[in-house]
Amino acid sequence: MKKRQDYISWDEYFMGVALLSAKRSKDPSTQVGACIVSDKNKIVGAGYNGLPIGCDDDDFPWEKTGEFMDTKYPFICHAELNAILNNIGMDLRGCKIYTALFPCNECAKAIIQSGISEVIYLSDKYEGSDIFKASKLMLDKASVRYRKVDSKISELILSFDEQKV
């Protein structure tokens, strides 16, 4: 018997972990996940966008528009920052971060400061906005590489049906 040929690549695997992490987000409009991986392809951190520990999801707004304090924006921790903060306690220098959305300028600062050397993203849908222009400028100046994930598959379906294991 020969080995399977239809297994997923490392990029697909780690982006899949990021996308699965995003499913933990309570945000009704945007669910983002991130996964940090060592140079030995070991997962060392994961996170999703959500409120800080101790802040009840029902006590804060989830709106995207309105007065600043009536929106989610002053309160939400982005997936990339959560993955960095949730790491297993190791030095992140030389690691890669997989994220569903290209990181904003605030997350880019945290990525640079933590020593992560590469960003792999699925979507760059806000590419033209100043926040993401600033992010790319900082990543470029700090020599942090970034690239869109290279995937041969368009979806990956998981099943909790024990008969399919």
Short description:
This protein has four helices and five strands. The chain is of the alpha/beta class and 165 residues long.
Tell me about the largest β-sheet. Answer: 5 strands, mixed
Instruction: Encode the helix/strand succession as letters.
Output: HEEHEHEHE
Q: How many beta-strand runs?
A: 5
List low-confidence stretches: none
Sheet/helix structural class: alpha/beta
Mean pLDDT: 96
User: Kindly, what is the distance between the CA atoms of the first and last residues, rounded to a whole number of angstroms?
Assistant: 19 Å
Helix content: 25-40%
Gyration radius, in Å: 17 Å
What is the overall shape?
Answer: globular
DSSP helix count?
4
Strand order of the largest sheet: 2-1-3-4-5
> What portion of residues belong to β-strands?
15-25%
What can you tell me about this protein's structure?
Helices cover 25% and strands 16% of the residues. It has helices at 10-22, 79-85, 105-114, 130-141, and strands at 33-37, 43-48, 96-101, 118-123, 145-148. The protein has a five-stranded mixed β-sheet with strand order 2-1-3-4-5, with helices on both faces. The radius of gyration is 17 Å and the shape is globular. The mean pLDDT is 96.
